[in-house]
Amino acid sequence: MKRLGIDIDGTVTCPSSILPYINRDFKVNVTLDDVKEYDLLHLVPDVPRQQFSTWFQGAEPEIYSGSPLAEGAKHVLSKWKEQFELYFISARATHLLHVTEEWFTRNELEYHHIELIGTHNKIATAKKYKVDLFLEDKHDNAVAIHEECGIPVLLFDTPYNRDPIPKGVIRVKNWEEAARWVAEWRK
Predict the structure, then answer these.
(1) Out of 3.40.50.1000, 1.20.1050.10, 3.40.50.1820, 3.80.10.10, which CATH number does the structure's domain 3-14+69-186 have?
(2) What pTM was computed for the model?
(3) What pLDDT was estimated at residue 39?
(4) How far apart are CA 4 and CA 171, in angstroms?
(5) Confidence of residue 14 (pLDDT cuts 50, 70, 90)
(6) Which end of the chain, C or N, has fewer beta carbons within 10 A?
(7) Where do the CATH 3.40.50.1000 domains begin and end in the chain?
(8) What is the pLDDT of residue 6?
(9) pLDDT (tens digit, 9 = 90+) per residue, 129-184?
């Protein structure tokens, strides 16, 4: 059975999940279209990086607990659980495993494994678990995983990941498009 490596935040969760918390806590009014890069500090220009990092670490449990599913993710993943091994590989820190597992349970998402690695460098983990395909929203992660692991990577299109991609990184607009691509790949 083929094994899929799947990012969580911005891939399984809606890519705008963090924005209501940034808007509330920093008194701004940003939308997903304002997010032109993965690093979110540009959304709050007068806030020092260290202050933003401290805020984010404190807010992570609330953000991850309240993140809505990306449209179509539950439908596709529930079909895939019978066809593939689903390995969720996330940059979230390991101390957030309980919050993450509770979120999966509450959203009725099944999985074979969840690995929180505390870093955006997912190459070693993708190799360790021998994933055959990866699903990601972070541009440089998608490119690096494809190049280092030699596997196709589906890059979920967002305003913050529009840089050019090499052949082998496939941009998809949504989960329905990802499902169609995977069905063809599986043949």
Answers:
(1) 3.40.50.1000
(2) 0.96
(3) 94
(4) 16
(5) very high
(6) C
(7) 3-14+69-186
(8) 98
(9) 999 999 999 999 999 999 999 999 999 999 999 999 999 999 999 999 999 999 99
Residue type (1 letter), 129:
Y
Q: For position 140, what pLDDT does the model report?
A: 96
Look-up of token digits 């990092």: 53
128, two tokens: 């360790």
- Extract the tokens encoding 121: 């460098």
